[in-house]
Model the fold of this input.
Amino acid sequence: MSDELLEQLRQQLEKQQAALAALQPVPSDLEQLSKVVALLNKKHCHNLPLPPEYLRLHVGAKTSAANFMAQGANSSERVLEIFGEEPAGPILDWGCGSGRTLRWLRYYPAWRENYHGCDVDVEAIEWLRQNGQSNLAVCKDDPPLPYADEMFDGLFAFSVLTHIHPDKHRNWYAELRRVLKPGGRAYLTTQGRHVVETLGSQLPEGAAKEFSERGFAYLKFEGHYKDAALVGEDFNRQMLEGLFALEDYKLTGYQNMDAFLVRRLG
Ligand SMILES: C[S@@+](CC[C@H](N)C(=O)[O-])C[C@H]1O[C@@H](n2cnc3c(N)ncnc32)[C@H](O)[C@@H]1O
Done:
């Protein structure tokens, strides 16, 4: 190799090294995503921190922060579709847990004013209170709720009746009707036919048979409110009769659950 060629190569290498040194280190996608999530959390969720893992486990099977955030983003979107961004009066989140839905509603001033949440989970309610949320109540496994008659314009409950024995559903519907204003709407989810059909043989023995014969079944599981009530559409319609008009019923209206919108009669 001639001296001239060597010198040319040396100069090229020098240039390339200078160009490399000028490049800023590029943060990984994960780091960038974390920054975006932190910003969204600050702005959209009004600085409500993520609940600790044990509280996230109380409301679901997957405890990852991403799952908690995504589930809440989905449920809050549904709430906004139904009740809008500017509810004019109080709305109840029955079985609010540690605020999975609430955190995304806090962005909207009218929701900050009109949101009310209650749950049997004392620890979740206490955690929300400690983090600055007001209009919360601890409620009981059975009615009554700690609210006056006709207090709410509307209410919603994601996967709450799914953990309450079907024998209690009629009483709960009567109680939800009591706290709603005349004409007030409720959005509710239950687990039923779709879950039975998709889980099939994975269900505990006899559950599918019981469901098909009686229209409901109740499965016992360890953990915070992990028992599962399976109720069919006919069962739900019977429970609602005389109390609510059914405005919309979808078999897989919310994830794998039946989801329905009802309006208080009378
Ligand atoms: C699957 S979690 C759903 C929580 C919340 N709705 C959400 O979507 O994030 C079920 C919730 O219902 C609550 N719960 C169970 N029975 C209840 C009852 N009788 N009254 C109020 N909350 C109840 C549990 O403590 C738990 O927070």
Observations:
- The first strand starts at residue 91 and ends at 94.
- The beta strands are 91-94, 115-119, 136-138, 152-157, 180-190, 216-219, 228-231, 244-254, 257-264.
